[in-house]
Design goal:
Helix content is 64%, strand content 7%. It is mainly α and 411 residues long. The strands form 2 sheets. A 3-stranded antiparallel beta sheet has the order 1-5-4. A two-stranded antiparallel ribbon has the order 2-3.
Length: 411
């Protein structure tokens, strides 16, 4: 077997990503973050099921079976943490308040978090086709034009332009009544009103997906707060505060390595209570993993919220549509007169509308501005041809003889 065949068999993130019909911040959420959480889940699972996740120091009278029982019991039941310089409390309630309830479930919570980051993308991919356009195919064709010959490039751009023109013309309102006018008004006022025939379906649905990404990454901090039973929101700041100290990586109250475990053994009618001291090697991995997760979530949350605000700015302010389209038409020097500039505003607002401009933005973020320039130029020329009034043929003048002319004029 050759090395090339081995390398080609390794799965790539491109397959996980699927079609590129969003921007890089979305892929940061549903590709890279999902990959990281899945990788961490595999690492922790390996330590739990392949290695020995817990070791307990047992009294001398415990035989091998007793030691195995104590280890299994303490792994399944929650252990609790009391620092070495503190006395073990006698009250059961105080011991239960210090229990560690997470270490058995770390792989599952990491997989659940990975699914939460993938969920908005699943929703987007399932329902964006309701707009009537195959966005995945359009972006894929536009992306492939970068590597083709000039002839193939021109042919592909023309096909995309014709397809988008047919889509834009097909999904328009042809019946006007009170309900249609109300829907059109809502679509103009509220960008979240999904109206396919008003040209706002894709845009509104994508903004909703953006909100889901932002809400999810913020909710992750609260999910980990409940899961770890600690203030995970402040974990990164605590790590930074201890970074310069000598005992920065020693015993941690959040992820202790040495814990205590209470269990009871029934011997006939006698019930004996034992307290053993256990070591959790798996917390060495958990501590470093959740430190990285905290900083990663902060980065992703910042970029996602900033990106969501930027998309809202592009969509809510309607003038941004015309400004965006003019940028590409000026590259080809298509706006030479005042009439062309006014026609460009109608081209963006009445022809492309929100969804058409959104498709151009998605293409530009997944290919190059050169592709979008050629595509906008092609659709602009198609629109100008439709906007020109059809020439009215002059009626054929009847041929009048000299005798008829004399009779009509009286001369």
């Amino acid at each position: 077997m050759s090395i090339g065949s081995v390398i080609s068999g390794v799965p790539s993130l491109k397959k996980l990503q699927g079609a590129s019909n969003d921007d890089w911040v979305d892929r940061l959420n549903h590709v890279w973050t999902v990959f990281l959480f899945a990788m961490f889940a595999i690492i922790v699972s390996t330590g739990q099921f392949v290695g020995d996740p817990i070791h307990c120091w047992c009294p001398a009278e415990f035989t091998g079976a007793y030691v195995d029982y104590a280890k299994s019991y303490c792994w399944i039941k929650n252990t609790y943490y009391i620092p070495m310089d503190e006395q073990i409390p006698l009250e059961t309630i105080k011991r239960e308040n210090e229990e560690l309830t997470y270490y058995q479930w770390v792989p599952l919570i990491l997989l659940f978090q990975a699914f939460m980051f993938k969920f908005p993308n699943i929703i987007w991919r399932l329902f964006n086709g309701g707009s009537g356009v195959n966005l995945d195919k359009v972006v894929e064709m536009a992306e492939k034009t970068q590597m083709g010959s000039p002839e193939d490039r021109e042919k592909t751009i023309k096909h995309i332009a014709l397809y988008l023109d047919r889509w834009l013309e097909t999904h328009r309102e042809y019946h006007w009544n009170m309900l249609v006018r109300a829907k059109q008004h809502l679509a103009r006022v509220c960008c979240f009103f999904c109206n396919k025939r008003a040209g706002t379906y894709l845009t509104a649905f994508y903004l909703t997906t953006k909100v889901l990404y932002a809400a999810n990454v913020i909710a992750q901090f609260f999910i980990l707060n409940g899961f770890l039973s600690t203030d995970f929101n402040l974990y990164g700041f605590e790590v930074l505060a201890k970074m310069g100290q000598e005992d920065a990586w020693k015993e941690s109250r959040r992820f202790p390595r040495v814990t205590l475990c209470d269990f009871r053994i029934r011997q006939l009618q006698n019930i004996q209570t034992w307290t053993v001291q256990c070591v959790l090697p798996i917390n060495l991995f958990n501590e470093k993993i959740f430190i990285f997760i905290w900083f990663w979530l902060v980065l992703v949350a910042f970029l996602t919220c900033l990106n969501t605000i930027a998309w809202f700015y592009r969509v809510v302010f309607k003038r941004n549509r015309a400004v965006y389209i003019k940028k590409y038409l000026k590259i080809n020097n298509e706006l030479q007169t005042g009439f062309d500039k006014k026609l460009c505003a109608k081209f963006a607002e009445q022809y492309l509308r929100d969804d058409g401009v959104f498709v151009m933005r998605v293409i530009s973020k997944n290919s190059t501005d050169l592709v979008v320039t050629d595509l906008v130029d092609k659709m602009w020329k198609m629109y100008k041809e439709k906007s020109q009034p059809e020439p009215v043929e002059e009626a054929a003048r009847p041929v009048i003889s000299d005798k008829e002319r004399e009779l009509l004029t009286g001369h």
